[in-house]
Amino acid sequence: MAYLAALAIAIGSWLGVPGGSWQPNATEVAEARSQLESYVARKAWLAREALPSWDSYTFQYQGQELHGKKVILVNAFCSAPPPDATEQLVRAFDGGPCFFQAYWDPIDKIYVGVAFNGHA
């Protein structure tokens, strides 16, 4: 059954994850989505990291606060989504740029940070 649930989540999906401190609306998520690839590609280039194919990523998002400001956390991973990917954030402690977290400021409409995972 868990296998079927995982198949229902397509790679490339944007999945809202419950929790966090606020709920982003569809417009805020669309704005974050529209600027993510170019932002992450530039930051990866500056960090001399090679990104996997953008089509291999699945993206989770959650409304959080960073330094007292509302942000949308975008959690990205380039592996098959686990069955609980719609319920909790996927965490990994290495894996390089296959895993990253970015923060979108919905007021200023800019990304304010990205962190790529390290290499084991």
Mean pLDDT: 89
Rg, alpha carbons: 14 Å
**Cα distance spanning the termini:** 32 Å
The domain count comes to 1
Description:
The protein has 120 residues and is α+β, with helices and mostly antiparallel strands. It has one domain (2-116). The protein is 23% helix and 29% strand. The chain has 2 helices and 5 strands. The protein has helices spanning 2-8, 26-46, and strands at 14-16, 58-66, 69-77, 99-105, 110-116. A 5-stranded mixed beta sheet has the order 1-2-3-4-5. A hairpin with a 2-residue loop joins β2 and β3 (69-77). The protein is globular, with a radius of gyration of 14 Å. It starts with a helix and ends with a strand. The model is unreliable at 1-7 (pLDDT under 50).
Task: Offer a concise description of the structure.
By secondary structure, this protein is of the alpha+beta class. The protein is built from two helices and five strands; from the N terminus they run αβαββββ.
List keywords for this structure.
120 residues, 5 strands
Give the topology:
Elements: H1 2-8, E1 14-16, H2 26-46, E2 58-66, E3 69-77, E4 99-105, E5 110-116
Parallel strand pairs: 1-2
Antiparallel strand pairs: 2-3, 3-4, 4-5
